[in-house]
Amino acid sequence: VSQQGQGILRKIWLELVMFVNVALLTLLLLIRERAVVALNVPLPSTSSPPRMSESPFTQLGLPQDTIQEMCRLDIRRRQKELIALGWLGRGFLAAPWLFRAIFPTLFQFDVYGDSDSASTSVELSEGVVECTLKEASIVTRGIPLKLRLSLTNGSRQIKAAELLGIGCDLSIATSDSRSDSTGKERAKFLCSNINSDSTAKKAVVRGIVDKIFQYVSAPIDEALKVKVPLELSELQRVPTNAETENRANFTPRRDLWAREGSAEKWLQQVGGYWFAEAGVCNVRFQTPTQKETAAAEGKYAPYSATTFTFYFDPSEPVNSDETLMNINPEAIYCSFD
Question: How far apart are CA 142 and CA 110, in angstroms?
Fold first, then answer.
């Protein structure tokens, strides 16, 4: 076979390998989507349901070491998904022409619907905005990405991006929250800019990739390998009010009465996904020692710099390993210091 022929065969082989990897990632994420089926049944009373008085982990009724292991198991699942996204981003940055040919919808961004709490953008200062955008090339309902974008040229061009969080942030989904029309229009403009400008898209993808490999890959690997304890002790006490720094009760806005999991419930849409009355709390790995921090300096962030938000629906069975059922409690959002 001629040298030119070998080059063509090598290119075809690389494209096939990339296609298989993308297909496997797509399958992995699709089976993780929550199933919500609308029901044609009478709606219950619209009076507010009683708020839960205990933290979600207290309601599990399990030893703390078991709770820790369940949380670590789901963090590992989320870490694998995020690292897969990071490698897709690295591949895109290395060979954008290849991805445009075999996966043209990859890293195409969009906004969420009018009723979704995650569809607004917020201007922090002149030339800096925060927004949650949808990347839906792999999962139909999209992966919510919370971004901080630095703009130039009269706030019309994106020069840099930082990933602040991935997943559904229920802290923005208060019962009376609604999409801000001005913010949504701004988010639409940003999506159009990213999707049409190759320089802007590379800046956003680079921001996503850098944060994943700095915060999620090696640091979380280290914490899981040596079983660093998660900071859960403060979550074992019954709260004295409805909301604290690390713990809250999520009451949905009642966007939809539907089946979620094993029963029909009132649900609210956040980041394209549906959530019921539940306990929500933030956990992170314990702060590393000065020696551990020094060893990681210049390489990656300490593992305590990533916060995972767990969602626990007390009406559903506890589950940490059966993938055909809803994982409960489940890590639904991770954010970075």
Answer: 9
Dump pLDDT digits (tens) for 102-129.
Answer: 888 889 998 887 667 666 777 778 889 9
Which of 113, 174, 112, 191 is closest to 144 using CA atoms? 112
pTM, 2 dp: 0.77
- 126 C-beta neighbours (distance < 10 Å), count: 8
Task: Write out the two tokens for 250.
Answer: 């999520």
Strand ranges for the chain from DSSP E: 36-38, 109-110, 121-125, 128-135, 143-152, 157-167, 247-250, 256-260, 263-270, 273-275, 278-283, 306-312, 330-336
Element (H or E) spanning 78, and its range?
helix 64-94
Indicate the residue type of 273. Answer: Y
Contact 330, 83 (CB under 8 A): no
Of 129, 136, 142, residue with least CA distance to 193: 129
Reading the block at residue 202, the tokens are: 């590379």
